[in-house]
Amino acid sequence: MIIRRVGEVDGVKWGNGISRRMLVADDGMGYTLTDTTVWAGTRSPLQYRNHLEACYCVSGTGIVIDAAGNEHRIVPGTMYALDKHDGHYLVASPSEDLRLICVFSPALNGYERHDFGTIAFSQY
């Protein structure tokens, strides 16, 4: 059995926020569970070529914009899943952080970070 508390897990600054990777590949579960904060007022161009991701909003507000430009509002209780390795923009409200519980499959190693210095979507 694995027991972890969010305050006991070091955060990884992933680009526009901090992610506490509660489960990673070395845990042997086959997926990663994160408690991720997206900093207020940020816009993140993201894509996961090697992972599928589902996110559930527990606090804050924002929008996720798909590659076609369709905007989807995120409020507490909203889940979105990137079931086709979708490129997307994650935008946090200018007035508050966005907090998401996320699942990645297959599991992350735990140290991955985004690079927003490229023109395309940041990916890993």
Overall pLDDT confidence: 92
Total domain units: 1
Strand content: over 45%
Distance N to C terminus? 29 Å
How many helical stretches? Answer: 0
Q: Biggest sheet, open or closed, and with what strands and sense? A: 6 strands, antiparallel
Number of strands: 11
Helix content: under 10%
Q: Structural class of the secondary elements? A: mainly beta
Strand order of the largest sheet: 1-2-3-10-5-8
Question: What would you say the CATH architecture is?
Answer: Sandwich
Uncertain runs are: none
CATH fold-type name? Jelly Rolls
**Assigned CATH superfamily:** Jelly Rolls
State the order of secondary-structure elements, H for helix, E for strand: EEEEEEEEEEE
Radius of gyration: 14 Å
EC number: 4.2.1.108
Pathway: Amine and polyamine biosynthesis; ectoine biosynthesis; L-ectoine from L-aspartate 4-semialdehyde: step 3/3
Enzyme class: lyase
Family: Belongs to the ectoine synthase family.
Give an overview of the whole structure:
The strands form two sheets. The chain has a six-stranded antiparallel sheet, with no helix packed on it. The protein has a five-stranded mixed sheet with strand order 7-6-9-4-11, with no helix packed on it. It has one domain (9-108): Jelly Rolls (Sandwich). It is mainly β and 124 residues long. The chain is globular. It has strands spanning 11-13, 17-23, 32-38, 43-47, 52-59, 62-66, 71-74, 79-82, 88-92, 98-105, 122-123. Helix content is 0%, strand content 47%. This is L-ectoine synthase. It comes from Nonomuraea insulae. Pathway: Amine and polyamine biosynthesis; ectoine biosynthesis; L-ectoine from L-aspartate 4-semialdehyde: step 3/3. Its EC number is 4.2.1.108. Keywords: Lyase.
